[in-house]
Write the structure tokens for this entry.
Amino acid sequence: MSGTRFETDLSGVSLSAVGFLPVGPVDLFARVGAVDWSADLSAEGFGRDSEDGTDLTYGVGAQFRVWSLGIRASTRFSTSDDADVDMLSIGVTWTFL
């Protein structure tokens, strides 16, 4: 079976401000920030293409807290270019204050 080989390279750096709304042991949060990204695509027989940019980002999520430990989930990461990236991000936080 033959086909065309595609290769992609995506990278980015994001910085966001996060606001929390505490509801008992659960915090609802929203984030807004910016992402600086670059994307490269190459395909045998078709050549290479590259794009990059800086976009506004936003998203929502929830965090469950027990003492200083938090388990956080975020469900959408969107950009101002109408390119929504659906993802589930799960993280653990530890607060020292």
